[in-house]
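Priority: medium. Attachment 1 of 2:
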């Protein structure tokens, strides 16, 4: 008989570069934290100097603003929320608080769903890519080169890129989920099971209960020689 913990069957404790899932989740949270902090600084600088992100008609073929004030404040609020979520995930993985990781995991699922919808849209409506490229400004970098590519090849290239990105995002989701299960399993009672050859399991009581029940029994009578 082999004695194993019940949670070791369903997930792995290692992730990329053979590091632990806690370490991977902490590094992932810090990376997202840095990205959102940089994006927040860019938004704040654009809010402080709006002329820096306003392009003339000669540059874009029409009067175009990078972002108006309403969208700017919405983007800043989203960036602050993302910084909070990433900080919670990093702290939760470091201090082993499983509940703090759930918001970051939900964000990953939402982001994965959005990218999946983009892939489905490209697959169902392949002509939408060409229409989107035509709407770009005339002096957009490599616009003519992209328009000269075969539409079928362009769709295949975009789908390949999205597939690679979805695979990577799915791996990161599994890393965070395994970290959540690892921390949640550590916080619960360590109940072991005996796995027999016929796939039957026998749950063992906790060590404290077994010790209390064992000490409550009366000792056997003394041995009397004949």
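Attachment 2 of 2:
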């Amino acid at each position: 008989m082999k004695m194993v913990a019940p949670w070791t069957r369903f997930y792995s404790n290692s992730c990329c570069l053979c590091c632990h899932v806690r370490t991977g989740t902490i590094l992932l949270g810090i990376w997202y934290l840095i990205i959102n902090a940089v994006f927040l600084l860019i938004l704040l600088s654009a809010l402080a100097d709006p002329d820096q992100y306003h392009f003339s008609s000669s540059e874009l073929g029409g009067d175009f603003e990078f972002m108006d004030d309403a969208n700017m404040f919405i983007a800043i609020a989203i960036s602050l929320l993302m910084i909070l979520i990433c900080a919670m995930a990093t702290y939760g993985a470091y201090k082993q608080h499983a509940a703090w990781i759930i918001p970051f995991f939900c964000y990953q699922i939402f982001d994965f769903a959005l990218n999946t919808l983009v892939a489905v849209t490209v697959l169902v409506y392949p002509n939408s890519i060409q229409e989107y490229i035509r709407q770009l400004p005339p002096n957009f970098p490599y616009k003519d080169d992209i328009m000269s590519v075969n539409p079928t090849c362009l769709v295949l290239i975009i789908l390949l890129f999205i597939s690679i990105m979805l695979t990577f995002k799915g791996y990161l989701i599994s890393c965070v989920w395994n970290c959540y299960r690892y921390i949640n399993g550590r916080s619960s009672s360590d109940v072991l099971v005996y796995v027999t050859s016929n796939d039957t399991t026998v749950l063992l009581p906790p060590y404290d209960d077994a010790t209390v029940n064992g000490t409550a029994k009366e000792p056997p009578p003394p041995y009397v020689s004949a």
